[in-house]
Structure prediction request, 258 residues.
Amino acid sequence: MISNKKQQIYNLLKSIETGDSAAVSVVNEAKYIQHNPETHEGSEGLAVLFKRLSKTSPKVNIVRIFEDGDYVFAHTEYDFATRNIGFEIFRFEDGQAVEHWDNIQTRQELNNSNHTMVDGSTEITDLEITESNRLLIQSFVKSVLIENRLKHLDDYITKENYTEHNPRCANEQIDLRDILSKNNLKNTADNFSINYETCHHLLAEGNFVLSACEGTINQTQTSFFDLYRLEDGKIVEHWDTTEAIPPRSQWKNNNGKF
Prediction:
């Protein structure tokens, strides 16, 4: 059964499509901290904003939604003027949402394993091992993504039953190794280099864990939101979005991306 917090955030995100002003009441706009650097804070009430957006006939699909204590996080697809994939994080305080982070990427075509950026498993299981799954992803992010110890990749990812949704990768680990390898910072195929530097958030519910990290792609400061599904102590499925962080001079609020 979906929790009240999840339902409230589900309704809030869908109100971008419906214009339902009642759904916005979950947000305490007096306390609301906005971490999207391209969004003004307090310049336009959310009810007014969402009502205006709804007139453009947007489509909002909440593919997955999770709860971790005071946090609700969702995996979404949007169809406005362009089709985008996003992760949304909301922090609750006294029954209302008071803080928001997101990471949006233009939807890409099928990857080499014929997977989209959002298809795949949605069932939440293994609630009793949420914390051990969180610790496993914490270790993976630190060891493999940040410290680039790719020799440990097999310790975290199962070879036989792994599904990759990143549009640049296939299910085979060789793709992931090539992209992450600091010995090949400039991929000869598309001049692509990636570097994870800091992990800011690790949110989890059961067999799903979301990490929100910061680093660079081709020396451009970038935010990485990665969603992992785990099974029997291994990563078996992965989705992500990446988004360039604009220079501070272009921020429309002073709260920072994280």
User: Anything to note?
Assistant: Confidence is low (pLDDT under 50) at residues 184-189. The radius of gyration is 18 Å. Residues 138 and 202 are 7 Å apart (CA to CA).
